[in-house]
């Protein structure tokens, strides 16, 4: 990529987040002021763009604000791509699939309770009632790094008995070849991408986590389950079939790269991507 001259930009607080490191800049015109004062206020626009390009980009993103997350609608459901799970065993399920909650420290206990409440508020999980039959439970781990934490389900046992989906994942080398021919590049990452997929009612009983405060069932796809990358890759390819075949859109699971040779082409491509119904 030594001969590749790249101009890039970044947008944030959205369902598709362009992730190229940039420097924050102040609004240069009314269009940017409108852009920065609205629901896209976490977006950053690179200094590599001209004032005219900055204005055109901010106008485009503002016009397509429906593709972005907001306080009223922080998480959406992608229609037509529900998550199903098929096990390679029949009932009765082995004891390995019925796990107990891991012991946690007081600090992690508080973090778990906070995160569980957040997932409940988002509609990602629901609490399983005490009279409901529970056959499969997965414990969770609280992973800490620099005083920040992540709640991770240990789905190892469930994954062992899950029938694999062998849909192919693209090779990075092919993507790099396409990128090397571009002048403008936008790299987008689906915000909480896996959580945007609804779990089918029949599969929810397999996706129950157990913690010190009860059993909860995932209504959206959790991170860490088998086939999640393959299913997401298939879904994205089906959402963008023409764009994929035309060669200017690269999709790698929940990462999407828009490549173009001119600014006009780049704006046109982004407009097509952001107007997709499922966004």
Helical residue percent band: 25-40%
- Whole-angstrom Rg: 21 Å
Please identify which CATH superfamily of the largest domain we are dealing with.
Answer: HIV Type 1 Reverse Transcriptase, subunit A, domain 1
Largest sheet: 5 strands, mixed
What is the total number of structural domains?
2
Which CATH class of the largest domain applies here? Alpha Beta
Proportion of residues in β-strands: 15-25%
Mean pLDDT: 82
Q: What general form does the structure show?
A: globular
| CATH architecture label of the largest domain | Roll
Number of helices, counting only DSSP H or I runs of 4 residues or more:
8
- The overall strand count is 10
Order of helices and strands: EEHHHEEEHHEEEHHEEH
**Which structural class best describes the helix and strand composition?**
alpha+beta
Separation of termini?
Answer: 31 Å
CATH fold field value of the largest domain? HIV Type 1 Reverse Transcriptase, Chain A, domain 1
């Amino acid at each position: 990529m030594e001969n590749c001259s790249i101009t890039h930009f970044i947008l944030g607080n959205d369902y598709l987040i362009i992730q190229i490191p940039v420097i924050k800049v102040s609004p240069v015109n009314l269009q940017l002021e409108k852009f920065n004062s609205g629901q896209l206020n976490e977006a950053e626009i690179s200094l590599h763009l001209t004032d005219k390009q900055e204005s055109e980009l901010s106008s485009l993103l503002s016009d397509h604000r429906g593709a972005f997350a907001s306080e009223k609608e922080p998480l959406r459901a992608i229609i037509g791509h529900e998550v199903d799970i098929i096990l390679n065993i029949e009932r009765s399920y082995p004891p390995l699939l019925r796990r107990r909650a891991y012991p946690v420290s007081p600090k992690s206990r508080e973090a778990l309770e906070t995160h569980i409440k957040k997932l409940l508020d988002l509609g990602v999980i629901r609490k399983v009632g005490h009279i409901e039959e529970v056959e499969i439970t997965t414990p969770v781990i609280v992973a800490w790094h620099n005083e920040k934490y992540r709640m991770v389900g240990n789905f190892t046992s469930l994954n062992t008995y899950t029938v694999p989906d062998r849909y192919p994942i693209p090779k990075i080398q092919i993507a790099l070849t396409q990128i090397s021919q571009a002048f403008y590049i936008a790299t987008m990452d689906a915000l909480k991408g896996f959580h945007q997929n609804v779990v089918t009612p029949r599969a929810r009983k397999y996706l129950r986590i157990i913690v010190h405060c009860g059993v909860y069932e995932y209504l959206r796809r959790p991170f860490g389950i088998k086939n999640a990358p393959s299913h997401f890759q298939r879904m994205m390819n089906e959402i963008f079939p023409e764009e994929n075949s035309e060669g200017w859109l690269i999709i790698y699971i929940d990462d999407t790269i828009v490549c173009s040779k001119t600014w006009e082409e780049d704006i046109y491509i982004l407009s097509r991507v952001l107007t997709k119904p499922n966004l």
